Amino acid sequence: MTHAIRFHTPGGPEVLRWEEVGVGDTAPNEARVRHHAVGLNFIDIYHRTGAYPLPMPSGIGLEAAGVVESVGSAVTDLKVGDRVAYAGGPVGAYSELRNIPADRLVKLPDAIDFKTGAAMMLQGMTAQYLLRRTCKVEAGDTILIHAAAGGVGLIVCQWARALGVTVIGTVSSDEKADLARAHGCDHTIIYTRENFVERVKQITGGKGVRVVYDSIGKDTFMGSLECLQPLGMMVLFGAASGPVAPFDLGLLAKMGSLFITRPTLFTYTAARSDLLAISGDLFDVVTSGKVKIEVNQTYALKDAAQAQIDLVARKTTGSTVLLP
């Protein structure tokens, strides 16, 4: 028997339980992975609260790094002892040991340790598709990223800076502003005391930005649209403050023929070829030193509830990992 965090009904952090679980035989297309580190992400909160419903009872977590202990009969590109990482379904990463479809695993470069690997996959591949696929930014562009001191935010700031992009970021405190600037954010806006729309207009000389990357949702959505230049793109990739209410699409025409999209990492990595390309690009920028993954908090896996409490309370910066 092994242990995992499971929950039997949606709810607050108290529903998370540290339980003994069985790990069945490895199916032909699966690999068994012993986790060395597990990533913490906001989507885990959505799953736990029922905002993104799961069949009950359920495991939780979408990201981890570890070592392959066995492979199914149909698996040809992995072997026992391989260092691997993953981000995406099926849920169940908050566990010591699990079976997972082998085509969701990527080999972790030797230069990247397990904690970094667990912290970087979901957030780092999200940053990759945001910057290089959803709206491919180029040198000279100006962008706005909300939650610039968060896990995705710090990666986006560094990666965008390496591409020659000017980065404006919103944060909640002076300390987070310092952190964002240290990671490539050119202009920080402390939204708790500044109007971010007015500041973006001021910084850009009234022009606005080419793209807004918004993971906050309800509280920032309309303001984010106001920050865009004509033909700009609104990329809504999360809803930390809640879902965006329905709105009149005619506003996009009135505000400058704007574009809007609601992407997910799972769509962008559904094909294995895309998963390998996106993760490979991420590994390259990390091993080159252009992007540093900041693992600023660690918790024991059995203390996942406290880790989630701190994430929701915005007490964390950068990435957080859970250690089995």
Automatic annotation (TrEMBL):
Swiss-Prot/TrEMBL keywords: NADP, Oxidoreductase
Q: For this UniProt entry, what's an example GO CC term?
A: cytosol
Q: Which CDD domains match?
A: QOR2
A GO molecular function assigned to this protein is: quinone reductase (NADPH) activity
Q: Could you tell me which residue ranges the Enoyl reductase (ER) domain spans?
A: 11-322
Q: Which SMART domains match?
A: PKS_ER (SM00829)
The record, for Pfam families, names: ADH_N, ADH_zinc_N
Looking at the record's lineage, which domain of life comes first?
Answer: Bacteria
NCBIfam families, A to Z: PRK10754.1
The name under which this protein is listed is: Quinone oxidoreductase
